[in-house]
UniProtKB/TrEMBL annotation:
Pfam families with a match to the protein in the record: 2OG-FeII_Oxy_5 (PF13759), TPR_16 (PF13432), TPR_19 (PF14559)
Name of this protein: Tetratricopeptide repeat protein
Native organism: Nitrospirillum amazonense
Domain of life: Bacteria
Residue spans of the TPR repeats: 58-91, 237-270
Classification of source organism: Bacteria, Pseudomonadati, Pseudomonadota, Alphaproteobacteria, Rhodospirillales
Keyword entries, A-Z: Repeat, TPR repeat
InterPro entries documented for this protein: CHP02466 (IPR012668), TPR-like_helical_dom_sf (IPR011990), TPR_rpt (IPR019734), Ycf3/AcsC/BcsC/TPR_MFPF (IPR051685)
Glycoprotein is among the record's keywords: no
């Protein structure tokens, strides 16, 4: 159109005469026939004829609105549907369609009244009940403080839809999702299994049950349902992603890689699949295939800035800096104002040891996005490495204000004070008060620690299936288990016994901490505890952990299971855990301030924001630990 008007613009209203009604109805039926066949252009032309006769004809307005939606003209579609309702507000299907448009464009609260009107004028409107409930579930995700009442309000709507239509799959899946968010996984499973009793081959129900089981870390139980779903709907990438992640958790890495490749074929720009695929290729030693999936995807989506930014992030992670830079440049040419570009550029420059440039880029990015936590993180990191602690302290404080429980904000603050040569006024790195080392005895049922560790090592051996360490983790020259070791269903008795011993020790540690509502560590005392993560790390000769913190935890810890003889080296402190060292690249460094010699049965607890790492050891033995993060929910 040369005049700037939408192709769906409507003529000025003109009332239709009684003699025209029959003609109008005949035209609408013709338009419906064409629309059903997918011949949208023909349907549109006929509807224009109707509106030329009567510009207030509600059926023509709403049908043209649906065609506009199909063409992606959502604003025009919304206007047309609203105009149809302005003529006749008692149209249940138009209220429903407008509700769908609002829901699908991320406006669930605005959609709710239209679903309510649809139900008011059509009391057996199954889809409207279900979609109204879906909006309430979406709002629960947006409003955590009101999540429970919103979810509880959704459940009777889903149940009403199932009363009207017992095989309405979307409602049954919705009930399950609501129960999962209410932390009632047993009821979610019950709802899905009831649906599978009626529709055993429905791919949606199989996928949903597999997903629900996977979210409970019941990976062995989940896999058969996800396999069945994939057989029934091999063109759905979501199912292959769920199955791939489940197989990764089960240690079936090669089959998982096959599933993740299928996701990439079906959805080349899928971030989760691309990341998981290349990390699995790395861990299994298939390094010749690394990052090929990004190049394949770019051939199919050559002008997709999201894909280019995603690829750049991956190339940085795997140390291929020139290619990362080329992807960033290509993304910037397509979308120069992307908010992700300053972060990506700063991250790449830091990886290249071009730290002054990285700081300049991060600071420049903060001018337009002053509340971007990732840019504040990069700013603080670069400032510390350049020995500019005042700038780092400012960024750390701003980060802590934006993200109150940010462990990085506290770590950067404490490090800045050390570089200034000043005592930390809040005592953040008070090692004597906050680091707690205690020997745990053998759990009940074991004759001694040796017998317990033999069982524990056998259980851990089954999960150390990779050949290489995770590329995104701090471990070097070793392997690490996947998923949450302490909470996965079917965990070995020895792992569960260790979990209970560690939890009891952590509670004693917490009880001994002083009360201080202003301290970033102590103020979380009294919160409900949960396992934010737990895993086993196994180092080989020359293995170590780089200096790092645990951003997802509140209290972190490490339990020592099997130690090499080299840890007896009191002078070189091979394999010892250290605290306080800050050394990233070629910038400013700080030495460690506290070191602890590991031994089998020793548990070390400390704040998650404390920099810690390990000193490499040498020899033909391995070093096996169980590490974890404990979180606190207020």
């Amino acid at each position: 159109m040369t005049n700037g008007q939408s192709p769906f613009s409507i003529p000025v209203p003109r009332a239709a005469s009684a003699a025209q009604n029959q003609r109008i109805q005949s035209l609408i039926q013709q338009a419906l026939t064409f629309q059903t066949r997918g011949q949208l252009h023909e349907a549109e032309q006929i509807l224009r004829q109707v509106l030329a006769l009567d510009a207030t004809e509600p059926d023509a307005l709403q049908l043209l609105g649906l065609i506009a939606k199909r063409h992606g003209d959502l604003d025009q579609a919304e206007q047309l549907l609203r105009r149809s309702l302005a003529v006749n507000s008692r149209q249940p299907h138009v209220n429903y369609n407008l509700g769908n448009l609002l829901k699908d464009t991320g406006r669930p609260s605005q959609a709710l009244p239209f679903y309510e009107k649809a139900i008011l004028h059509k009391s057996d409107y199954v889809e409207a009940y279900s979609n109204r409930a879906e909006c309430l579930v979406a709002l629960a995700g947006q409003e955590p403080a009101n999540a429970r009442p919103l979810l509880e309000a959704a459940l009777p709507l889903y149940r009403r839809a199932l009363q009207l239509q017992p095989d309405y799959v979307a409602a049954r899946v919705g009930i399950a999702e609501a129960y999962l968010q209410l932390d009632e996984p047993e009821r979610a499973e019950e709802a899905l299994r009831a649906g599978l009793t009626r529709l055993p081959n429905d791919f949606y129900l199989n996928n949903s049950l597999g997903t629900a089981l996977r979210r409970q870390q019941r990976f062995e139980d989940a896999a058969p349902y996800l396999r069945r779903a994939a057989e029934r709907a091999p063109d759905r990438w979501q199912i292959w992603l769920n199955l791939g992640n489940t197989l990764l958790a089960l240690g079936q890495l090669d089959e998982a890689i096959t599933c993740l490749k299928k996701v990439v074929v079906l959805d080349p720009g899928n971030y989760a699949a691309q990341a998981a695929l290349n990390q699995a290729l790395w861990e299994t030693g298939q390094h010749a295939q690394l990052l090929n999936s990004y190049e394949w995807a770019k051939e199919r989506k050559p002008n997709d800035p999201d894909l280019l930014e995603m690829a750049a992030e991956a190339y940085i992670l795997f140390g291929r800096h020139d290619e990362a830079g080329a992807n960033i440049a290509a993304a910037a040419a397509l979308r120069p104002e992307s908010p992700s570009l300053p972060r990506l550029r700063a991250t790449l420059l830091l990886a290249q040891e071009r730290v002054p440039e990285a700081l300049e880029v991060a600071l420049d990015g903060l001018k337009t996005a002053p509340d971007d936590p990732r840019l504040l993180y990069r700013t603080a990191e670069a400032a510390l490495r350049l020995n500019r602690p005042a700038d780092a302290l400012d960024a750390a404080r701003r980060l802590g204000t934006l993200v109150p429980d940010s462990q990085f904000a506290v770590a950067f603050e404490a490090t800045a004070y050390r570089l200034m040569g000043q005592q930390d006024p809040r005592g953040l790195y008070d090692y004597d008060r906050f680091i707690h080392a205690v020997d745990l005895g053998a759990p009940a049922g074991y004759a001694d620690l040796g017998a317990f560790h033999a069982d524990l090592m056998a259980a851990l051996d089954l999960q150390h299936v990779a050949r290489h360490e995770p590329i995104e983790q701090t471990l070097r020259n070793g392997t690490q288990t996947r998923e949450n070791l302490f909470t996965r269903a079917g965990a070995a008795p020895a792992i569960l016994a260790l979990r209970e011993n560690v939890l009891a020790a952590a509670r004693r540690y917490i009880a001994g901490l002083p009360e201080d509502g202003t301290h970033p560590f102590l103020r979380r005392k009294g919160q409900e505890l949960h396992w934010a993560g737990s895993w086993s790390a196994r180092l080989r000769s020359q293995g170590y952990h780089t200096n790092h913190i645990h951003p997802e935890g509140w209290i972190s810890g490490c339990y020592y299971v099997d130690m090499p003889d080299a840890v007896a080296d009191a002078e070189g402190k091979q394999g010892w855990i250290t605290f306080g060292a800050f050394a990233q690249g070629n910038g400013a460094t700080l030495p460690w301030e506290r070191a602890i010699q590991p031994r089998p049965g020793l548990l070390v607890l400390f704040p998650s924001y404390m920099w810690h790492g390990t000193i490499p050891f040498h020899g033909g033995q391995t070093r096996t630990t169980v590490a974890f993060d404990i979180g606190g929910r207020g």
